[in-house]
Design goal:
Elements (H helix, E strand, L loop, with lengths): L5 E9 L3 H15 L1 E5 L2 E4 L10 E10 L3 H15 L16 E7 L4 E3 L4 E3 L8 H10 L12 H6 L7 E3 L5
Antiparallel strand pairs: 1-4, 1-5, 2-4, 3-4, 3-8, 6-7
Length: 170
């Protein structure tokens, strides 16, 4: 019996060499999964701890046969490790080479892992830098908790401080 394929939406962000690290992270996802879509990159000001460089944020739609926890521990953790992600226990909003989060998984509502992490990612409803890239690649996707499309959610945000940034794909 073939493994069930899940459609996942991953949010990516970086403010340390972001042009290089976002491209590399997307390439690493392509090597490990079937990538279906990649959003534009968006330059946004930092949240929380504002004394740092702007972030570039984007989203990737992919399919995988892994569970959310296995994807987080095997794929995301490996990419973050290879790209030198350092977590500052005193500042969750510290600069980072790369940050990947599972934003959406099929049409599921899931708590998973020890933290626990939550799908759909709560930041979809809180931050333009998460909602806008997701809406670009899946405008009609219905948020499983609100019943709104990603386009409707994205339209609520002020995007005057965001701008698209071209990335150099190899």
């Amino acid at each position: 019996m073939p493994d069930l394929l899940h459609t996942a939406y991953i949010s990516l962000g970086s403010n340390i060499e972001p042009e290089k690290n976002l491209v590399k992270a997307a390439q690493m996802l392509r090597e490990r999964c079937n990538v279906l879509a990649i959003s534009s990159a968006y330059r946004t000001p930092p949240q929380g701890f504002t004394e740092q460089a702007d972030f570039l944020n984007m989203a990737v739609k992919l399919t995988t046969s892994l569970s959310p926890l296995d994807f987080k521990m095997d794929i995301i953790a490996e990419i973050e490790k290879v790209l030198g992600r350092v977590r500052d226990p005193l500042n969750k909003n510290a600069p980072r080479t790369i940050d990947l989060d599972i934003s959406l998984w099929d049409d599921a509502i899931i708590n998973y892992g020890e933290k626990p992490w939550h799908i759909p990612e709560r930041d979809i409803l809180r931050f333009a830098h998460v909602a806008i890239p997701l809406a670009e690649i899946a405008p009609d996707y219905i948020h499983p908790e609100t019943g709104q499309s990603l386009n409707e959610i994205a339209a609520r945000f002020d995007t005057s401080n965001m701008r698209r940034e071209p990335l150099q794909w190899e």
